[in-house]
Amino acid sequence: MITQLSSYLIDSNSKDLDIAFYNGELIKFAAFKQDVCQLIPQLMEVEQDNIAVYYDQAYSFAVHLFAILHSNKKVWIAANNTQATADKLKQQDCVLLGEWQGKELLLAESEDKEEFNLIPLDINKQQLVIFTSGSSGQAKAINKSLLQFQTEIETLESCWGSQLKDAQVLATVSHQHIYGLLFRVLWPLAAGRCFHSDMYLSPEPLLKNSKSKPSYWVASPAQLKRLDELTAWQEIHTLVSIFSSGGDLPLEISNKIYKQCGQSVVEIYGSSETGGIAWRQSINDKLWTLFDKISIAVNDEQIARLSSPYLSSTDSLVLDDKIKIHNETQFTLLGRVDRLVKIEEKRLSLNELEQSLNNSQWVKQSHIFVLKGKRDKVAACLVLSELAEDLLQKQGRSKLIKKLRQSLLNQFETVVLPRKWLFIKSLPLTTQGKIKQALLVELLSLDSNRFPQILNCHFQDNHVKLELKVLSKLVYFSGHFPEQPILPGVTQLAWAEYFGKLFFDIEQPFLCMEVIKFKKIIRPDDTISLSLNWNSDNNKLYFEIISETDSHSSGRMVYGKQ
């Protein structure tokens, strides 16, 4: 049975109900209610009506979410707690609450231990603000009401409630986005299921904590793609279910998971703006199935218009994806609508170019976009096939790019072919499975007079390895030294810090350097590898520059306040 979120803390008499597993303890309903009620009087004293909340722990987030709502404030659910996000929220007259690197409001601890007299929340009031991913532009703020979440929760429970029963919720996605907010906090609360407060960074600790009782996994495609032969498949087999959302889960990954452990992943299609639209288990059916009370109409160009009770208004919404309808409840996705561009007055479908590359013998996966400038350039970020990797190693980058261009010439004019190329081991994804396009743009926009050429790139979690060509035209070689130019050590340090801050969320200021060593000189046109490891526990960036036969430099940079 689903509890109404608007009266969740009032109607429930289940004081022994397990709400969350937090800091090694099971939190009961009575304790949760008390934690919420103690915060409300403090929040009511805050002058501003807008409060932006960010917590790494889902339990802390849930407590503050309900406290803000019951204090009659508007809660802004920030996607992250970076400096840029904090600044934008302050521009919206938001008070920051939670974990904001010292920028947050500090609430005085209440001495009043009496329970606040709660009244039901207005379920129709647009009291919550969430954000789109911003993966292809500025993040957009979307106003939501509890009714929209309540309606969606009831639909989810009707689909999978009997399967999940009283299973606990474990997640590798953040609750600060709509998918995690629904699947790991609001739905479990309304359905009476216990959620783990930690967001697990990898499947190993998640699976370890799934042994105590029946569990299901709220995942993203990014994490599911990383499962390999070393994965504890037998433990995944024991999970009640696996959900995935935030991006495309390739059919080969779904089949691999099913083959290894018998789990048929449930994929959810939707967005922050639309809420859930459809679901599928691709090993059974590649088509998407609409949720109840949702309909899609498609015009002759496959542009889809959505009607849904989860929308912020009664109006229908044009979707960003093209869709092919198969019957009243099922459809396939055909790619993004907004990916038609003009290059030198020639029209180009970025989807079509991606598909052509993906169908070639050279490419496993691609992401194509346009680099804006005085002259727009098509950029290609490619995950190479084994054949292409072999060609790259034996014949070099120029030969491979020539082969790639030749594979496209039968279908595209020369003027629209990619002019910028980046070879990577895997596409960089957020925890929500969205491509980090801003990162790719930065990598392909580097000043070639000041930065090395990126030959290949491999990144995973807190580790990055860059294969670099130290071009002879770099400004640092001028005068250093005239007879025998070498790359200055300070330049190597600057590159290490630049790429470290580009790939990792390093918010603290630079403090000092430790055990810096320069062992072997680097000459013009040398090929080197830069390895970076970020340890957020001690705020240290470890780096090493090596070549095929030598270690050139190494050390670590320390970040933090003096």
Q: How are strands sequenced across the largest beta sheet? A: 2-1-9-8-10-11-12-13-14-18-17-16-15
Estimate percent helicity: 25-40%
Shape: globular
Give me the secondary-structure category: alpha/beta
How many β-strands, per DSSP?
29
Proportion of beta-strand residues: 25-35%
- Tally of contiguous helical segments: 15
Q: Low-confidence parts lasting 5 or more residues at pLDDT below 50?
A: none
Q: Could you give the distance between the termini? A: 54 Å
How would you characterize the overall build of this protein?
The protein is an alpha/beta fold. Helix content is 28%, strand content 30%. The strands form 5 sheets. The chain has a 13-stranded mixed β-sheet with strand order 2-1-9-8-10-11-12-13-14-18-17-16-15. A hairpin with a 4-residue loop joins strand 28 and strand 29. Helix 5 crosses helix 6. The longest helix is centred in the N-terminal third of the chain and has 19 residues. The protein is globular, with a radius of gyration of 26 Å. The relative contact order is 0.07. The model has no long low-confidence stretch (mean pLDDT 91).
